[in-house]
Amino acid sequence: MSTEKRNALGKGLSALLNDTPSVLPNKNNEARQAVPRPVSEVDSLGSINEIKISEIEVNPFQPRTEFDEQALADLSASIKLQGLIQPITVRKVSAHAYQLISGERRLRASKLAGLTQIPAYVRTANDQQMLEMALIENIQRENLNAIEVALSFQRMIDECSLKQEELGDRVSKNRSTVTNYLRLLKLPPSIQASLRDNEISMGHAKALLAVEDPAAQLYIHQQIIKNELSVRKAEELVREIQKAPTKKEGKQPEDLPYQLRKIQDDLASKFSTKVRLKVNSQGNGSIEIPFLSEDDLGRILEMLDW
């Protein structure tokens, strides 16, 4: 990754942290690396400090909940050999207690490596700033999947009261990129899970977003997985589906109670197609399971053990 790209990615987080340089000028005006010092010896919050790991609690706003165990083990081995290169960032909450702002993966790996102290930047931040910092750092990770990015974007909008343009400035992305990620959250849950688990790519997801009908989205998604379709083939299938004549629906039924809507959604996820429950005031009704082709019908019948 080029220096220019790294600087662009770090723009939002640096602005929030208001970092001071991690180098100090010597008498010859040459830069030298700052040496970590015990917290008790530090007056400034802009320095690198050695903090006891036992005094650090994890960030309650951390958007990432899963960490690759093998990657943690590899990082831990590197830390044992070379030490921790990049300090974590914490905020001080009391005389001997700190709360992690960013760097949970480094903190976990340091614990695995058996470290008792860790270099850290000490910052002052309120809860909203902590959330924003954690989200921005998370978004800037190269190995973050598209759904994790989208969820982080949505959290920043909802919980940090940011508009899309402001969000784009924070993470150094244009508004259209932010919008494309947010649109992923409109896909059916099973498709979002597939994207999260790298069963389909961002390109596949964009092709699916061109289809408005969730039932068609689920069918195309099922075909992508079953036949290992490339993005180009998925786009061709989308065009075929869009050209097919659609039946105009009549008057829509009134909204179902929450419990029935939950059943309807669970059935739709199970059969990978749009399912409709119809219930009258006497409690009688029917279940409709539409299909898009003979192959799709065969798939549904097979699931019903027909």
UniProtKB/TrEMBL annotation:
It comes from the Bacteria. Keywords: Chromosome partition, DNA-binding. Residues 19-28 have a biased composition (Polar residues). One of its GO terms (cellular component) is chromosome. Residues 19-38 are annotated as: Disordered. One of its GO terms (biological process) is chromosome segregation. Residues 49-139 form the ParB-like N-terminal domain. GO terms for molecular function: DNA binding. Belongs to the ParB family. NCBIfam families: parB_part. PANTHER family: CHROMOSOME-PARTITIONING PROTEIN PARB-RELATED. This is ParB/RepB/Spo0J family partition protein. It comes from Mucilaginibacter achroorhodeus.
